[in-house]
């Protein structure tokens, strides 16, 4: 009896990529297989041992400003003051984002028209960087997919078969922006 190649790939995916996932013990074998197949089908969207961020395919975000050049000074903000501990943490986070290709260094001859200051937030001894996008959001055309109100989300999801949770620590970086928005 031949085993389909997809079946072998799915089994390898389950053993290599889902081995640390906490899947509910209340699922039947059929439900667990259905969930594994769904995750396998959309595997590019998730981080893995080979791709630390994952990527949402065919969904580039376009950031469109509702103003023209020259941009107001509010969009070119200096860095916030930081303690030595926070500056060190910021350096580590920035290096990680550079290594992952999420951000890039700006060349000496490049003009930077918009800057977004960041702060280092601490929780349980761990640091993360948080961008201050308030000024930028003021001058941005609203997204076609606004964040829904939580009550609406719960109501819409009340009949769902599966509801998942995930650590969204780096989820923001999965949103690829258009080349125009990168400028």
From TrEMBL:
Q: Which domain of life is it from?
A: Eukaryota
Recorded hits in InterPro entries, A to Z, give: DNA/RNA_pol_sf, Rev_trsase/Diguanyl_cyclase, RNA-dir_DNA_polymerase
Please give the name of this protein. Answer: Uncharacterized protein
What is the species listed in this Swiss-Prot or TrEMBL entry?
Answer: Austropuccinia psidii MF-1
């Amino acid at each position: 009896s031949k085993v389909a190649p997809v079946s072998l790939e799915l089994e390898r995916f389950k053993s290599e990529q889902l081995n640390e996932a906490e899947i509910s013990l209340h699922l039947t074998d059929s439900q667990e297989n259905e969930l594994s197949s769904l995750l396998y089908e959309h595997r590019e969207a998730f981080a893995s041992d080979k791709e630390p961020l994952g990527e949402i395919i065919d969904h580039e975000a376009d950031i469109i400003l509702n103003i023209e050049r020259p941009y107001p000074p509010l969009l070119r903000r200096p860095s916030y003051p930081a303690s030595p501990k926070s500056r060190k943490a910021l350096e580590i986070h920035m290096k990680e984002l550079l290594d992952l290709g999420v951000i890039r260094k700006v060349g000496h001859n490049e003009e930077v028209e918009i800057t977004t200051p960041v702060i280092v937030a601490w929780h349980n001894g761990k640091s993360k960087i948080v961008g201050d996008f308030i000024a930028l959001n003021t001058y941005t055309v609203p997204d076609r997919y606004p964040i829904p109100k939580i009550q609406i989300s719960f109501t819409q999801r009340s009949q769902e078969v599966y509801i998942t949770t995930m650590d969204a620590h780096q989820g923001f970086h999965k949103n690829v922006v258009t080349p125009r928005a990168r400028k």
